[in-house]
Amino acid sequence: MKRFAHTAIRRSSGSLVAAALLAAAPAAAEGGPSAASLDAPTAPLPRLGLSLETDPPLPGESTAGWYGLGPASPGNALPASARQGSGNELTLERAVEIALHNNGELRAVRHELEMTRGLQRQAGVLPNPHLELEGVPHHGAAEVAIEYPITRALLAPFRSSAAAAEVGAARLRAKAAAIRTAFEVRSAWYAAQAAQQKLALSNQALDAFVAGRDAARALLVAGNTIALDTATQEAAYEGARIRSAQLELEYHDAREKLHRLLGLHGEATTFTLPAALPAAPAAFPIEDEAAEKGAIAASIELAELQQRMEASSSRASLGSAAGWIPDVSLRAFGEREEGEWAMGGGIELSLPIFDRGQGAVAAERASLAALKARHEALATEIRSAARAARNRLRIAHAELGHYERSVLPTRAKVLEEAVLQYNAMQVGVFQLLQYRRDQLEAQLAHVDALRGYWTAAAAFEAVQSGARVEGGAAPSSAAAAPSSSGGDSH
Amino acid sequence: MDRRSFMKMTGLAAAGASILASADAVAAPLARAGIGRGNSRLVTPNGQALQWRIVDGVKVGHLVAEAFEHEFAPGMKAEVWGYNGGTPGPTIEANEGDRVRIYVTNKLPEATTVHWHGFVLPAGMDGVAGLNQRPIEPGETFKYEFVVKYPGTYMYHSHYDEMTQIALGMVGMFIVHPRVEPGPRVDRDFVLMAHEWKMEAGARRPDPNAMSDFNVLTFNGKAFPATAPLVVGKGERVRIRFGNLGPMDHHPIHLHGLAFNVTATDGGYVPRSAQYPETTVLVPVGSTRVIEFVPEEEGDWAMHCHMTHHVMMQMGHGLPNMVGADTRQLDRRMSRVLPAYMTMGTKGMGGMGEMPMQMPPNSLPMRGGEGPFSYIDMGGMFTVLKVRKDPDRADPNGWYAYPRGSVATTASADELARDGIAT
Ligand SMILES: [Cu+2]
Fold first, then answer.
1. What residue in A sits closest to B313 (Cα-Cα)?
2. A133-171: b or e for each residue (b if 16 or more CB lie within 10 Å)?
3. Is the ipTM of this complex over 0.90?
4. Of A167, A426, A429, B121, which sits most exposed with the smallest number of CB within 10 A?
5. Residues of A in contact with B318 (CB under 8 A)
6. pTM metric for this prediction
7. How far, in Å, from the CA of A289 to the mean position of ligand 1?
8. What does the mean pLDDT of chain B come to?
9. Confidence of residue A71 (pLDDT cuts 50, 70, 90)
10. Who's near A227: CB < 8 A, 6+ residues apart?
């Protein structure tokens, strides 16, 4: 774990390893929600489209359902229903645990692992002896014969060990599936949390829009402005309501994806998410050389290929050895004729003259060569994937740092100075509101950057834990950066 | 000649003699005094006078064009350009017929010239860059020399990149006293130069690109409450010489409590037969106006430009009109959107200058000054004419002591009843 400089990543990386272990330990989810059934009770549907139904509540009115408009703390993005503390709050680690326990795909992979274990046992069992009974009752004649395939029995342990390699490969596939599932849970978690935060920020922007509308209406009523200016403010507000509704849907979509990954339904889906994504480490937590080496060392795909190469190799050896060994069977028999038993024995053996399994051995050797070639190609791909994941994480970290060190402070400075200019009667309320909305836009883009960082970190981590994953690059926040516009009406 | 004038003259004669005795003497008192010839002392409130050195009968002076920090009023400083550390530059004072030789050293980052505004002089001395001379490059010193033929109230200013240099403060007054005063002798003689600047609230340099929205208006480079009051005597004859070399605006200067005549412009004297009484004189850009009056009422009298936006400090002009708006719902919303926000202007803007709000640094938006009764919510081109019985002993910073019962105040119920006023 030396390659990770930051505890947050180290901790979650550790949890990944734990997750892999948990793949075979259902006890981990004790007390956890049970898998879905067809007649399970349904959870109440969230009330959606609030921003299209009513104006944002005035301070003092109920803010139920209005993410981001709750009283006080700026980080408060939880709906009113979820504000009874962290009692129903789900942590990411717990979410991963639940998913590893509940996820249908993972459960199937685990069953497949059991299957290969069964096959292995089967390969190792001793062959049964053959018993032959013949008789003619009225004549009192009988024949008893026992035959046992010695060669097969002798080779059984070798067959078993060849099958053990297949079990190892299956175990690795299960581990990889666990890592991929954990990544998907993380990715979905970050998406849901980001959507929740963005919805809160969008509602705060909406609040600033509706304030502009109220100001314009007050000026129109007082006879101080023209209908055009008021209509402009109203149009801006009405347009902004749509975005809050869209972000509301984005949030609930992201949650449903999470529910599916966690295999949850009904009451179990009423958990809340932490209001804010965690902060990223200040320093970039990855050493450059570590990325490739770590990914190669941990790669489950490579290990699995290695296992298959070993299995193939031992099959080839076995086939080659078995080809020269005569197929030996021992036979013992007794014959009763006219009340007398006569005992005898025999041996049966094939002569490995023509069929020594040459073709199968050659095929196995070719298969082994193919696996070796594939191993080399895969190593190259994994190196590249590790570099790509590291590059994404590097840029995501730099972008996030830029937001936190430059974009957000400068936006805050803009608003701070705008308030001073407002106090000095140099700018009006509409312009002030525009600066506030510009700040919220920047915060919105920052949430995307934060999500991008954590998603890239999870993808990087998955690669470092041995599995390549899809979707390590969250949508860029660049397009969301607001244009710096002043107020356009007064 | 009254007694006061006589006393002044004899004092001056003594001072003049001692200064002339020393070739190196710095002749500040001479400049203030107008070098005898019966002129009363000239005062440039908040300003300074150019110091002369007499060389072979020629008045030799030195103007240094330079950049420096200037304070418009406490709380607001600016990087300006001017002469000898001042904007306006030092008041130049000479007598009709004097030969003056004025050296101009350019310490600005760009070229400059000096134009002697209103003077009749040889064309080569007129100072228009390109037309009358080549520009004075940074680091160079030029020499202007001419005879001041006609008495009057003149000005001087840069005539190179005027838009920038005048906007940044390259202006000054130039007074030429007559051999013989055409009118009655005056007891007080003031010089007030109007100027206008655009200073964004929180900026540190006037914006020379401004063409409107000037928001710092000054008399002699100072905005009220930093303008020095003009202290005069009841019954004295007072002269005020206004000059205007601001970039764009004419200023109707209004005096309270008296009427005056315009006695001269930078074109010369107004014949007595052509003078008429006024209480407001328009001082156009590029002009001087000289007024004379005799105050008969003691007191503190406002004297200001009558353009209301010229007695404001750094008021923004693109603001929404909030007067009369019912902002209760807006205020509720803003308490969540921007807790630092406070609605202003719904009941008018009086008292804004007194609000303890956090302001941009180096700015004086809406600021005025303390008055004897309450805050005076005017700033900029505003000053106070203080008419006193004994002006030479009066505290220039003190307020007029009103005789009991002479100040407007709340009407009593008895008075309202007596006069049949329903409220
Ligand atoms: Cu004016």
1. A424
2. eeeeeeeeeeebbebbbbbebebeebbbbbbbbbbbbbb
3. no
4. B121
5. 427-428, 490
6. 0.80
7. 72
8. 90
9. low
10. A220
